Amino acid sequence: MGIAILAFVVVFLLIASGGVLLFYREQMIQRLSAVISPETKKQTLMGSIQQSGFSLSSVVEHLEKIIPKSQAEVGVTQQRLIRAGYRSESAINVFYGAKVLVPLSFCAVLFASGFGNDNPFMFYICALGLGFLAPDFWLGRQIKTRQNKLRRGLPDVLDLLVICIEAGLSLDHATKRTTEELKMAQPALCDELGIVVLEQRAGRPRADCWKHLAERTDVDSLRNLVSVLIQSEQFGTSIAKTLRTHSDTLRTQRIQKVEEMAAKTTVKLVFPLVLFIFPSLFIVVLGPAMITMSEAFKTFFNH
Fold first, then answer.
1. Were 103 and a residue from 33, 131, 148, 247 both cysteine, which residue would form a disulfide, CB within 3.0 to 4.6 Å?
2. In the chain, helix, strand, coil percent, each to 5?
């Protein structure tokens, strides 16, 4: 028995060492080819990336065709993906492919863990339903996160817009300069404003570009900003003063929101106090007294 184990270990080590040698040999060949002809390496790398991307996209495309869907549903899902910041053409295919892969993954986890052996039909139905709805929940979460980022970064963007307009730039050039300057600090909002700049360069009217921004993001503060800008352009009022007033209003609303959340904490603390803290206090305070009283009653009734 010991000889067999020793022979198995020796064979395993020989195979492993051979694989390691082959691996390092391939690495050495790749390094030498990279030194001799770096352009060939780049082309090979790009070709392999394109081939892997093509195969992945084809697999996802076949998966997303499994789910029956109407054109209206696809349009609504694509609009939600755009609001979450996913504008690529393959985003809709990946989303519907995930609605097939996630339920299968949940079922595979249930099968591997053996958790659903007691009532397999019920557990597998729940896994399929949760897996099918999980991408929708995740997408809704991403939309809310992006909208919160847009809402928080809007006052800073408006301040820089006011500075650029007061420095002599037009609204279009001020928007372009703001997207360039705040791209690292507020990437989500600058991304949306960059689309506005691109639409204006393509020849669309300014009002339509800003309206598309409000529809694309679905944020109340941005809708108010768009309506204020359109009214300011129609009536000929100062855009800089309008933007400064709107920025001050947004900051005031933010402070009021924080104060409202702080005022709600007293009400929210009632439930943990009643359910968790008060019973513990009663046990600690009244527990020794109850024990003493029970012992006194026992001695009294025994006598």
1. 131
2. 85, 0, 15
What CA–CA distance (Å, rounded) separates 222 from 75? 23
> Measured between alpha carbons, how far is 94 from 88 in angstroms, rounded to an integer?
10
Q: Which of 248, 265, 282 finishes a domain?
A: 265
In a domain, 122, yes or no: yes
**Is 4 contained in some domain?**
no
Asked whether residue 215 falls in the same domain as residue 257, the answer is: yes
> Both tokens of residue 236?
């000929």
Task: Tell me if 283 is assigned to some domain.
Answer: no
**Element of type H or E holding 113:** helix 91-113
Check whether residue 175 and residue 238 sit in a common domain. Answer: yes
The structure tokens listed for 131 are: 């897996």
Taking the chain (303 residues) in runs of 10, the rounded mean pLDDT of each run is 51 51 52 54 43 49 64 85 86 83 83 73 83 89 91 87 88 88 88 90 88 88 87 83 86 87 86 83 83 81 70
Indicate whether this model's pTM tops 0.90: no
Residue 92: inside a domain: yes
